[in-house]
Amino acid sequence: MRWPANARALRALIRDPMGLMGLILVTLFILMAVAAPILAPYDPLALDVRAKLQSPTFAHWLGTDQLGRDTLSRIIYGARTALTIALTAIGLAGSIGILLGLIAGYGPRWLDAALVLIFDALNSLPMMMFALAIITVLGPGTGTLILVVVLVSIPGYARLIRAQTLSLRSADFIVAEQAIGASTPRILLMHLLPNMFGPLCIVLSMDIPVVIMLEAGLSYLNLGVKPPTPSWGNILYDGYTAIRTSSTLVIAAGAPLVLATLGFTFLGEGLRDALDPRFATARPR
Amino acid sequence: MNPPLLEIDTLNITYHTDHGTLSALRGASLIARAGEVIGIVGESGCGKSTLAASVINLLPQAAEVTSGAVRYKGQDILRLPPEAQRALRGQDIAMIFQDPMTAFNPVLTMGAQLVDFQHAAQIPRAEKMARARALLTRAGMPDPDLTLRRYPHQLSGGMRQRVAIAAALLMNPTILVADEPTTALDVTMEAQIIHLLRDLRSDYQGAVLVITHHLGVVAELCDRVYVMYAGEVVEEALVDDLFHAPHHPYTSALIACDPGHFEQATPILPTIQGRLPDLRNPPKGCSFAPRCPLASEICATPPPRVQISPTQSALCHKAGGRS
Amino acid sequence: MLTYAIKRIALAALILFVVMLAMYGMVFLVPGDPASVALGPRATPALKAMLTERMGLDQPVAVQIWRFFANAAQGDLGIDVWSKRPVLDQILEAFPQTLLLGVVALSWALTLGITLGVLAVVYRGTIIDRALGLVSVSFISVPSFVVAIYLLLIFAVWLQWLPAIGAGKAGDIPSQIKALILPSIAVGIGWVGYLARMVRASMLEIMAANHIRTTRAFGLPERKVVTRYALRLAIVPTISVIAVGLGSILSSAVFVETVFSRPGIGTLITGAVFKRNYPVVMGTVLVTTAFYLLVITCADLLIAKLDPRVRDALAR
Fold first, then answer.
1. β-pairing verdict for B4-17 and B93-96
2. Cα B196 to Cα A171: distance, rounded to the nearest angstrom
3. Strand B93-96 vs strand B175-179: parallel, antiparallel, or unpaired?
4. What are the tens digits of pLDDT across the range A4-47?
5. C188: three-class secondary structure by DSSP
6. What is the mean pLDDT of residues A109-132?
7. Contact A117 C14 (CB under 8 A)
8. ipTM of this predicted structure
9. Any chain C CB within 8 A of the CB of A193?
10. Which of A197, B80, C88, C139 is buried most deeply by CB count within 10 Å?
11. Surface of A (124-153) touching C: CB under 8 A
């Protein structure tokens, strides 16, 4: 049963101030994203050009942008955009990456060598350059964005799973399964994968901020999520263009980005410490 | 009898850890004279490694010497200033560590390290190399020149331990401390190292302390033995007396458990029942009492150190009345 | 050592080949004829015809690929369809600017990062150590373009101490230096965190190592223990980090140069992406990848030279 270990890890996480802060920030982020329609005071797309570029007022807690849209609402919905894209991209990248990693680690050597070469090639490209090349060919948009993020993230997952698979494949319990004739998919899915749960969680939580940053960055360059859909990157761009007139927009747009990425990173670090094998052994109370 | 080169006098050391304060050494005393090979035996956690570390004065930061002294040639080295302590290390007092695999720096050649270890000698580098080479030969290395040029990972564990022994002898130390010199080696290498150490005895004028949990090593190498349990020295004897006439129940139990001493083949290996006392709360009476077949009410009080003979003593209420 | 060097260089060349193939081939994977894709929605028939002829798109695929590689080997990365200037020229103009930014960022990040790392080791276990750890993690995770914008806001807009735009006037060194300050802080800040953590972890691990205990047991003075024995080991992972970090400048440069309107690879490529100027984009990607591979290969070779264990393990 894995539950006692997970519960202990959770408690260790909460006791660590960094982990706790991360957990709080991440929870707030997810709440904001999920409850956006309830939390946002205005429709994020509603224009009111007369009220453009206002500083914080009672009516608009974080002011408005150039088109009079309520910044606070746009930011709340921006969280939703960020989370949706992050989950989609990571879901896809993770699945494909895990699969490729399992194949590379468990399959024939030539296949492993070929896959490793591809991963290395992908890693040799500075991430943004690669992203931009794809966007040039496919044109900017949310779909392209997700594709780019997926492609950039796959090697990370694949390598981790590959490394874990390689080290576990000669483990006794795997050899035992092979000896009784268990099929390869069964071994992969039911025996190898569950043992990689811990490191996988850590990589996942460390990857989300990267994806959020990538999405925000590309949207900032107007190469990601297309306006008027609110994305923290878009809002930041609006703020940047208006930087000399209104600082509220810029500050308001940057803050959630910083807090979200910090939150996930703290959570990831906290998880890494909590899942440290030291905590796996029972301590006498 | 020669005056003692090394005298550990009622040493008390505690460790400050996250889980509390541990009494690692409780009133441990030991004497070593020139030409002697002293064995220090005990199971894991008995304090023997702490004792070794105190001789060379490389105790971890968490350790605190609460009382007692370690006297080298009459001088308490624990209370010397740091520079003076450092001057003794490697020159007068040398140590051979337990794990040859990690004892040497991986990015420097053996020769470079052996030369570095002679840093206090005011002789040219070539001469230091020559000394290193000579000692490697003495330590039984088949090709000393090649060894000097090699990196640690290119040598086997047994070879590395030989180099470690040679290194310890470089500056002709008065006291040589071998902390579990064979524990990390397999049986054949262990035999070789014991053979080497026995061979080196003839050239060596100082005192040697051999720390081990392996009774076989003690039997082969040592003149006198100290048996430790839970931070205390429970018995002290000449090696023959220890094996044939032990006076402390723990010693007897240890010997009984040693497969080397079995008279007949047996399907069940003997063990000592019970577990070590919690050193965060050292017992007031005899530490071994909970596990001792001879224990009675008097054992709840601190046991006396009974001097059985000039060369043998035991920390036990029941000692002396047995043969 | 030599075999290892050859293997590494061959591997790097192979990876570059794979990347080039992928870059060139991407145009074909997309539905629609390559010329339209490369030129975007504003392609006129005349432009398309010109591109088709120049890129040899009417010839068999294998021939095209061969021509591309042959040209690239000679340094001809094609002509920018918009400005009619050779792509390579544009890249060679822009690259040094980015490199300057990167080197300056690296320099101060190394200094600060290593210092913080060593401080954390000296005060390990204390509140200073924990605080530094928190700060390091924060630095690593904050996006560089957000930092850039906030710096711009505070120092260029509010306080007006430093310029918001450009790289300074040519020939006027002080203005160039002033223009470098904010961008290099934005680029370097992630590194500071990374380096501090890495130096700390590395030094702690080494100082606790058994072989350091051995050197102390032989009475070596502490200074020698640290410099000759510990530091030598700590350098090796630092080199890896620096090499990988150079790759990340290229990514950060895209944003930071845009925010501060500095000339450089970042500005070049973002401009090209907007105009669907594929030759420029492809050329930039190739050059930066080649540069990055060069750096990584050099780093790996340097590590092998410094650490004999790596040498032996890989020579097999």
1. unpaired
2. 39
3. parallel
4. 556 666 777 777 788 888 888 889 998 888 888 887 777 777 77
5. helix
6. 82
7. yes
8. 0.79
9. no
10. C139
11. 124-130, 132-139
* Residue C55 pLDDT greater than 60, yes or no: no
Residues of chain C found within 8 Å of residue A269, distances taken between Cβ atoms: 137
Q: Which of A117, A130, A221 sits opposite C18 (nearest CB)?
A: A117
Q: In whole angstroms, what is the distance from residue C289 CA to residue C278 CA?
A: 16
Mean pLDDT over C212-237 rounds to: 79
Those of residues 234-253 in C touching chain A at CB distance below 8 A are 247-248, 250-251
C218, B91 contact by CB (below 8 A): no
User: Scanning every residue of chain C, which has its alpha carbon at the shortest distance from the alpha carbon of A248?
Assistant: C153
Closest alpha carbon to A73 in A37, A49, A40, A45: A40
Q: What's the pLDDT band for B38 if we cut at 50, 70, 90?
A: very high
Q: Which among C306, C294, C313 has a CA at the least distance from the CA of C8?
A: C294
Which chains does chain C touch, 3 or more C-beta pairs < 8 A? Answer: A, B
Nearest to B254 by CA among B222, B216, B220: B216
Nearest beta carbon to residue B103 from set C211, C220, C228? C211
φ/ψ of residue A191, rounded to 5: -115, -45
Whether A252 contacts A239, CB under 8 Å: yes
Average the pLDDT over A224-245 and give the result: 84
Please tell me the distance in Å from C297's CA to the nearest CA on chain B: 21
- A147 token code pair: 């594709």
CA atoms within 13 A on the CB side of C296: 24
Omega before A228 within 30 of 0, i.e. cis:
yes
In the three-class reduction of DSSP (H, G, I as helix; E, B as strand; rest coil), residue B178 is classed as strand
Chains in contact with A, where contact means 3 or more Cβ–Cβ distances below 8 Å, are C
Q: How far apart are CA B318 and CA C216, in angstroms?
A: 44
Residue B80: DSSP 8-state: S
pLDDT above 60 for A87:
yes
